[in-house]
Write a structure and sequence with these properties.
By secondary structure, the protein is α+β, with helices and mostly antiparallel strands. Helix content is 36%, strand content 24%. The protein contains 4 helices and 6 strands. It has helices at residues 2-20, 62-71, 77-81, 137-164; strands at 32-43, 73-75, 91-99, 104-109, 114-120, 132-135. A hairpin with a 4-residue loop joins strand 3 and strand 4 (104-109). The chain is elongated and about 60 Å long.
Length: 170
C-alpha cells in the first residue's frame, strides 16, 4: 500500500511540475490562424554591440513564433526587467498572431527567450490590457545555434578589422 501512495505522490508532483512550465493556454499554438512577422530583426542601440553581435544576423521566423507559443512561461514584469535574471542581446523580432477565435496578439521575441505579448486590435494597437511577460528557456536553446553562427561572424568581422588596422599579423 505504501508503494501505491508513493506512486500517486510522484505522479502528482510530475503533473504539478509540468503545469508550472506549460505554455499559456490563452495563446494556444493549435489555434493559430495567421502569423505575420512585421519586424524580422531589430536592435536596441543601447544594448546592441555590432562588434559582439549584429542583430541583422538573428532573424525571427514563423517557426520561432509557433515554438515560443508552445513553450512560454509567464513571469512577472519585475523578473522580465531584472538585470540579474534575464539575459539581453539587444536584438529582437516582432510578430502578430491571429487566432481562429479572432483574438490578435503582438509579440516581441528576443533570441535569449525574453518575450513580451500584448493583445491588439486589427490595426495592431494595444487593447488596453497590460502587456504580459514571458520566459522561454527552450527557445533560447533552440536559437543558440543561430546565435552562435552570428557570434562567429562577428568574431570574423573583428579579426578582419584588426588585420586591416595592422594590429594582427597577416
Amino acid at each position: 500500500m505504501k508503494y501505491h501512495q508513493f506512486f500517486w505522490a510522484i505522479t502528482s508532483a510530475m503533473v504539478v511540475a509540468s503545469t508550472i512550465h506549460a505554455a499559456d493556454a490563452r495563446y494556444s499554438a493549435k489555434n493559430i490562424q495567421k502569423i505575420n512577422i512585421f519586424v524580422p530583426s531589430s536592435s536596441n542601440p543601447a544594448w546592441e554591440d555590432k562588434k559582439w553581435l549584429d542583430c541583422d544576423d538573428v532573424i525571427l521566423t514563423e517557426e520561432d513564433v509557433r515554438y515560443a507559443l508552445q513553450h512560454i512561461r509567464r513571469i512577472s514584469e519585475k523578473a522580465y526587467f531584472s538585470e540579474e535574471n534575464m539575459d539581453r542581446s539587444g536584438c529582437s523580432g516582432g510578430a502578430s498572431v491571429t487566432f481562429k477565435s479572432g483574438k490578435i496578439i503582438v509579440m516581441d521575441i528576443e533570441p535569449t527567450g525574453r518575450i513580451r505579448i500584448f493583445e491588439a486590435n486589427r490595426k495592431l494597437e494595444p487593447l488596453g490590457v497590460p502587456s504580459r511577460y514571458y520566459d522561454c528557456a527552450p527557445c533560447t536553446k533552440r536559437k543558440m545555434n543561430l546565435l552562435q553562427d552570428a557570434l562567429d561572424r562577428a568574431t570574423e568581422r573583428r579579426l578582419k578589422e584588426l588585420k586591416r588596422q595592422g594590429r594582427l599579423p597577416p
